[in-house]
Write a structure and sequence with these properties.
This protein has three helices and no strands. With 85 residues, the protein is mainly α.
Length: 85
């Protein structure tokens, strides 16, 4: 399906300010924000949600920090069979 375009006129200044603020918060364009809002409003859920709020943490640990975390959380990998029977 090809994409269509149209112009939206008459947007109140207050609404435009809110759209710009939300787009900035989400690190996206106003256009993409409006498209997502329209899709959501119409119940169109063709694409998966993508989250990027933790991207800045990826690869930020040293090898020692990663090893320490793995050792500290190892106990959570054990399954208590009595709880699941």
């Amino acid at each position: 399906m090809s994409a269509s375009s149209f112009n939206l006129r008459g947007i109140p200044e207050e609404v435009m300010a809110l759209l710009k603020r939300e787009a900035k918060r989400l690190r996206t364009s106003v256009n993409v924000l409006i498209l997502k809002m329209i899709e959501r409003g119409l119940g169109f859920t063709c694409e998966k949600s993508s989250y990027h709020d933790l991207d800045h943490l990826a690869g930020s640990w040293s090898a020692a920090e990663a090893k320490s975390f793995e050792e500290s959380t190892k106990q959570f990998e054990k399954i208590d069979k009595e709880l699941w029977s």
